[in-house]
UniProtKB/TrEMBL annotation:
Residues 60-232 form the Phosphoadenosine phosphosulphate reductase domain. This is Sulfate adenylyltransferase subunit 2. Pfam families: PAPS_reduct. Its EC number is 2.7.7.4. One of its GO terms (molecular function) is sulfate adenylyltransferase (ATP) activity.
Length: 279
């Protein structure tokens, strides 16, 4: 992954606001030398506010060119269509694929892990995407003995997941060891929330209350960050790394399974999105 061939081929560090992306982009042991890759960040206005603001400082520290792909701008430009019902996470698909095509990226590094969700569990470290940006889980390349095949045709690209075999606990251990700065939203804090579908959601103008729902202030933290209308938090008093690591070590359900509503639409919700070109 650090080879000159990969760097010269137009590889890009694909960075959203997720914890794994902070680990992949922020540590010394995962990515190559300073300035080896550009960086891309996906953004939309329904992001949780305290999860924003880390991409630009990190880009400056790593010496990379930051390319922000905005869902709102993609809607204005007619690249994706907002029908008022489609979650922002799905609108990110067209936004991402357009950015990859415009910039000519042939590889995009992400922070996905196999223990997060069953669709990611069967995805390769080098995940091939066809000329339409789509993933075919039935046509993946073997990766015996950690040997990776990065050959692609014109218009195709790779998604590369160097943290595939890590766990959530591995990520937190690495963050502590490397002293990586992460958004405060991952630590316990006071927040006005309401319960829906067994999860706690943030009070927001984008989250209108339904009958019977009430807002209370609780001490919570986020294990994963995404569209605030679909991303829940959990009650926690883990306000430092040691407490978070202790909490994660005792958990028996992944962060996506516990707090991501977009993965609960169907048994194959994540796989369906990934087939279309999702992160």
């Amino acid at each position: 992954m650090r080879s000159r061939r990969v760097r010269e081929a137009g590889a890009d560090v694909l960075r959203r606001q997720g914890l794994d992306r902070h680990a992949a982009a922020g540590g010394e042991g995962v990515l190559p030398r300073q300035g080896a890759f550009p960086g891309a960040a996906g953004r939309h206005r329904l992001r949780l506010p305290r999860g924003l603001g880390h991409a630009r400082p990190l880009g400056r520290r790593l010496g990379v060119r930051l390319h922000v792909a905005s869902v709102e701008q993609a809607i204005k430009d007619g690249i994706v269509v907002d029908d008022g019902r489609t979650p922002r996470n799905r609108l990110q698909i067209g936004t991402l694929l357009n950015a990859i095509e415009e910039e000519g990226y042939t590889a995009a590094f992400g922070g996905g892990r196999r223990d997060e969700e069953k669709a990611r569990a069967k995805e390769r470290v080098y995940s091939h995407r066809d000329e339409f940006g789509q993933w075919d889980p039935k046509n993946q390349r073997p990766e015996l003995w950690s040997l990776y095949n990065g050959r692609i045709h014109e218009g195709e690209h790779m998604r590369v997941f160097p943290l595939s075999n890590w766990t959530e606990l591995d990520v937190w251990d690495y963050i502590r060891r490397e002293a990586i700065d992460i958004p405060s939203i991952y630590y316990a804090h006071q927040r006005r929330v309401f319960e829906r579908g067994g999860m706690l959601f943030t009070e927001s103008e984008f989250n209108p209350l339904r009958d019977g729902e009430t807002v209370t202030e609780r001490t919570v933290r986020f294990r994963t960050v995404g569209d605030l209308t679909l991303t829940g938090c959990l009650e926690s008093d883990a306000d430092d790394l040691d407490k978070i690591i202790e909490e994660v070590a005792a958990s028996r359900i992944t962060e996506r399974g516990a707090t991501r509503g977009d993965d609960k639409f169907s048994e194959a919700a994540m796989e369906d999105r990934k087939k279309e070109g999702y992160f």
